[in-house]
Design goal:
Elements: H1 15-24, H2 29-52, H3 60-71, H4 76-89, H5 94-107, E1 128-137, E2 147-163, E3 169-172, E4 177-180, H6 190-201, E5 209-215, H7 225-241, H8 247-262, H9 268-275, E6 279-282, E7 288-291, E8 298-304, H10 311-324, H11 326-348, H12 352-368, H13 374-385, E9 390-394, E10 401-405, H14 410-419, E11 423-429
Parallel strand pairs: 3-5
Antiparallel strand pairs: 1-2, 2-5, 2-6, 3-4, 6-7, 8-10, 8-11, 9-10
Helix pairs in contact: 3-4, 4-5, 6-7, 6-8, 7-8, 7-9, 8-9, 10-11, 11-12, 13-14
């Protein structure tokens, strides 16, 4: 027999439980007992599955480290950094967390207070790096052989590799990933599939390695996270195993990983992730890549919609629409290509007003491709209303990130976005 009750008092004093009961729409204790029994069985089956596959402890250390960080008083802006350093130290203890918190707080620069939680600049250390990117003009059209302008962003993904006594492991504390590779097993998710591809290409499949990844890039937000992850891991393995890979080899292998993640990538993300410099890109065999040199960095604001977006999904939707009406979509792609080429001239003349107008027109074309979202549109309008001369989505769209060109007062635009509930940061790009 199962006795149904609520810990902490009756429903009048426990609003959360009352809300859950309304959501479940249960009318009696018997119905509630049946739901609880079903959930209990599901938990038991999940535990049994874990025991016979990856092991019930998978992910436990990350969860424990997060709990310890909370107990030690880690505040939101440093929480992920504390968790990562805790795991790195091997001492998942409150005293160690407090020690790390003190160290991190002494390293925080006063001027960084306007940076939203989740954004961190690249740190040079013993890590290999893959750069994030922002496309200024040309997304989606670049998949169809048109030009695009892209720049690295002051956020990246860092990784390092070391020998392991317990098989090959991929650990990304900030994203809650703690996975072990099983040779010969079909792995779900592009993370492990890409890692399996990398290890096979580098002939490291049989070498047990522990790969730790520290992302400053938010995932699934159109800032090139998957390509940056691939480049960081490839470079970490290259460094640890002394493989002597060249930049073109790193870029080519990262492109193969992008095909796993996105299906039909343009190649622009892995190119920026590898070389970390502004460029004009055109897809082809081989791709046409022209390094760009700006008179000075572009005063930008990067904003996050809070809605994760898979580039593979938006690329697929655009492709399906293109297949239904090729003349119409080819016309749109040609117009976006023309905007990118005009953008190069505007940057050469350092005419930011003109470049901003080109960004605004490009956003209209991306909206016509149906890859924008109401969150992105709201952020774009907020940015323009607060002084941005140009604002548009960047990357795949459907959520994710936007960029705003702010020659006069980028701080005002960033604050306006934050006050509206979005994450935003000032960034000098290029």
């Amino acid at each position: 027999p199962m006795k149904v009750g609520t810990v902490g008092g009756n429903l009048q004093s426990n609003a959360t439980v009352a809300l859950n009961l309304r959501l479940l729409n249960v009318a009696s204790a018997r119905e509630l007992a049946e739901i609880m029994g079903t959930v209990g069985l599901a938990q038991n089956f999940s535990a049994l599955r874990a025991l016979v596959t990856d092991g019930i402890q998978q992910g436990h250390m990350t969860l424990h480290a997060r709990s310890v960080a909370v107990s030690a008083g880690a505040t939101p802006e440093i929480f992920d950094t504390v968790v990562e350093r805790l795991l790195d130290s091997g001492e998942i203890k409150v005293w160690k967390a407090k020690e790390i918190i003190a160290e991190v707080r002494t390293q925080v620069q006063p001027e960084a207070t306007t940076v939203a939680h989740g954004f961190e600049p690249v740190e040079e250390a013993e890590y290999a790096t893959g750069y994030g990117k922002a496309i200024l003009l040309g997304e989606h059209a670049v998949v169809y052989g048109r030009h695009a302008i892209a720049v690295p962003v002051p956020m990246a993904i860092r990784a390092r590799a070391e020998e392991s006594k317990d098989g090959t492991q991929l650990i990304i504390p900030r994203w809650g990933v703690e996975q072990r590779l099983h040779p010969g097993t079909k792995h779900p998710g592009s993370f492990l599939q890409s890692l399996e591809l990398i290890l096979a290409k580098l002939e490291l499949t049989d070498r047990p390695l522990r790969i730790q990844v520290y992302p400053s890039l938010p995932r699934a937000n159109g800032l090139g996270g998957s390509a940056a992850l691939a480049v960081a891991v490839i470079r970490a393995l290259d460094r640890h195993c002394a493989l002597g890979l060249s930049d073109p080899q790193v870029c080519e292998l990262a492109y193969e990983c992008e095909r796993v993640a996105h299906g039909t990538p343009s190649g622009i993300d892995n190119t920026v992730a590898t070389y970390g410099q502004p460029l004009l890109f055109q897809r082809g065999e081989p791709p046409q890549v022209e390094p760009l040199h700006f008179a000075k960095p572009l005063p930008m604001v990067i904003g996050l919609s809070g809605v994760e977006s898979l580039t593979a999904r938006t690329v697929r939707r655009v492709r399906e629409a293109w297949q239904r009406n090729k003349p119409l979509y080819e016309r749109i792609f040609n117009e976006i290509d023309a905007l990118a080429m005009q953008g190069i001239k505007a940057l050469e003349a350092w005419d930011l007003q003109q470049f901003g107008e080109l960004m605004n027109v490009c956003q209209g074309q991306l909206n016509a491709l149906q890859v924008s979202s109401w969150e992105l549109e709201e952020m774009i309008q907020i940015a323009r209303a607060n002084g941005a001369v140009g604002a548009k989505l960047t990357g795949g769209g459907g959520g994710g990130a936007m960029i705003a060109l702010c020659p006069d007062d980028p701080g005002r635009v960033a604050r306006a976005l934050q006050q509206a509930g979005y994450q935003a940061m000032e960034a000098s790009l290029g």
